[in-house]
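Example 4.3 (complexes with small molecules)
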Amino acid sequence: MKILVTGGAGYIGSVTTEVLLSAGHDVVVFDNLSQGHREAVPPAAEWVQADLSSPREIGAAVAMHRPDAVMHFAARSLVGESMAQPFAYLRDNVINGLNLIEACVTGGVERFILSSTANLFAAPESLLIDEDASVAPGSPYGESKWALERALHWISETKGLRYGSLRYFNACGASDERGEHHDPETHLIPLVLQVAAGQREHVTIFGDDYDTEDGTCIRDYIHVLDLADAHLLALRALETGNVIYHLGNGEGFSVRQVIEAARMVTGASIPVKIGPRRAGDPPRLVASSERARHALGWTPRYADLEQIIASAWSWHQRYPNGYTN
Ligand code: UDP
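Answer. The structure with uridine-5'-diphosphate bound is encoded below.
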């Protein structure tokens, strides 16, 4: 198939592009480089630098490349930032997403896969969050993804677009050539590795007074290559209907446990400081991915946290400044 990947210069989008190409698909990356890196885009992908805020630019890309499917990664994606900039998050994520969905319908694209999020669940009723859990977004970021899930539901009902919504828990790790590089970096694992590498003095734990075993937030860390595999499988599953899946390892690790695992992997001491809670952070987010495992035959290959961190560490050692030369 030919797949248009928005945000293909970003972290999860670029790794998924790499995996789609290896599986024999053609890929067109559509990215405005507001966050992503041109160097992250695999050379075998076609490249369109354009903006999702412009229906004209998206329409032109769809008309020119005539993709069979669109995978939509491009978005503002920081929970904490969305609490400080709710208008930017709601406006850009929702309107740009709607622009893209409309261009797909107008341009005859029949398959759409949305990057969605565990931030749909601010107050989960059970320890493992499955697809039947009630949605209660934890931030404007989560709300913007929920708005797009609902839009896709209605566009599917009324226009026949087939869609998949993949709700990622905490993406991490790296492929040989592509890893996590944000500027500024805000994610836990790359920050911890920067401390291990001596590029930062300490990592700040955002709150140690949560109602969890060690007082720090618990997340479900899933390797980016496993997320990319799930996209391939979901694309196939769209032939028989719409799909919504939770993608995680089903095991929670606290911020302190992540730092401890990184100490084991790197051998560095990794000093920490305790700071205040970050707005919008739910205490515990752990997936039940049973549905994706059974229905898609998805089996995450990286179930071990140290193995995941080791892959991020080896990328970091190879590219200490990420995509910046
Ligand atoms: N976190 C932290 N210090 C940091 C960055 C993150 O304590 O410098 C915590 C954050 O509060 C959350 C977890 O680490 O509980 C994972 O955060 P990240 O930003 O990596 O991903 P998110 O859960 O926001 O998608």
